[in-house]
Task: structure prediction
Amino acid sequence: MDQTLNSIPSNVRNIHITAVCGTGMGALACMLKEIGLEVTGSDHRVYPPMSTFLAEKGVVVADGFKAEHIPADTDLVIIGNAVRRDNPEVLAVETRGLHYCSMPQALNHFAARGKKIVLVTGTHGKTTTSALAAWVLQHAGLDPSFMIGGILQNFGSNYRVGNGAQIVIEGDEYDTAFFDKGPKFMHYTPHVATLTSVEFDHADIFRDLDHVKQAFRDFVSGIPAGAVLVARDRDANIDDVISVAGCRIERYGDARDSSWYPADVRFSADGTAFTLMKDKKAVGNFETKLLGAHNLSNTVAVMAMVHHLGLSFETIRGALLSFKGVKRRQEVRGTKRGVTVLDDFAHHPTAVRETLTAVRPAAGNGRLIAVFEPRTNTSMRDVFQQDYVSAFDAADMILIRRPPLLEKIPEDRRFSSEKLVADLTRSGKNAFFFPDTEAIIDFLVLKTQPGDMVFIMSNGGFDNIHERLLQNL
Result:
């Protein structure tokens, strides 16, 4: 494609989005519509709820990818990162000589231009950290914009067009588009940013940990000298990555020589209470309804970021207490027959381990039953085969499904659910393998008892297991 056309012309009025029905692209379409642009879109799977949602927002969506789906008066085509070079609409862009760009290019140009970007990056914790930052700013009356990879319970949305000076963006390290294989977060210039963690993930994009670290180094090296990067402490990978930084660095976490850390921490089934320390001085006592050490770390990161935006600790205190969380992050889907069913996005072994440890107190005297579907491009590969063995330590019972899309992975690199269950059993865990979702539901209906907590983890829909299980219970 002509790279000179990979740009956004002035006076854009009409935009077409190829692959509009993804969560991020759909949100972008709505943001563009709200700021006064005309937006059309297309996708190969146009169905509710996204199709209905877009229609309600006034975005006309065509089913399938066809050259004629791009209107004649289109000024700019935004191309999703899953779209291939041989897509009929991409070919039409080339033939017609239309300007085109990626999602982060468009977000940066249309929504973030002129605003202070609050950017959250890292392998884990991005969505919750971004969501909490957005809510703290809203609670403070700053009317922020945001684009986040999950539905915020306080807003009922994953995006917002605000009139305030700040925009909160979840900075994804995944690649941008077929014409731009760099991470999405490279398109944003933060005023304040956080780096929560750096681990190997996205095995379909990155070769190894060094490849991941180089992507984060590229990002950190580009942060302006006048910006602030709040980086997690006690992480050797982060230590390496931030060594190239030219901006101000503040560390947060557990180390007593870090700028920000919690003291007198008290975890419970209802949340977490703690004293916030800044430069070894207590600045106040705080509470959050979020569970676990990993969410406490996310909370401290947010407090550090918004402090640099001028918020008082008193304002932050009230926002923490009123934050309702993010859908699919420790979300209670319902309780039937005394059995509580929760939904979570965890898939990386670190996220599985930290999340199960966090919800363990909430299970009380009941059993914590972990149900896991390996579905991501990484979790379906054997890269973390052994790491998962210790990831389920906090669970009393472990149910592992066969990966549903395993045929996408080369046979010699496939993750084995059967092997994981065998290894868990040898380590003394009560673990079971299941070939499909129906078998898991049948098992849980027979085996669960009042007081049990069923914690379901997948980055996909998991065949609507949550609702189906509650109905069967």
Summary: The first strand starts at residue 14 and ends at 18. The chain has a mean pLDDT of 94. Residues 141 and 266 are 30 Å apart (CA to CA). The two ends are 54 Å apart (CA to CA).
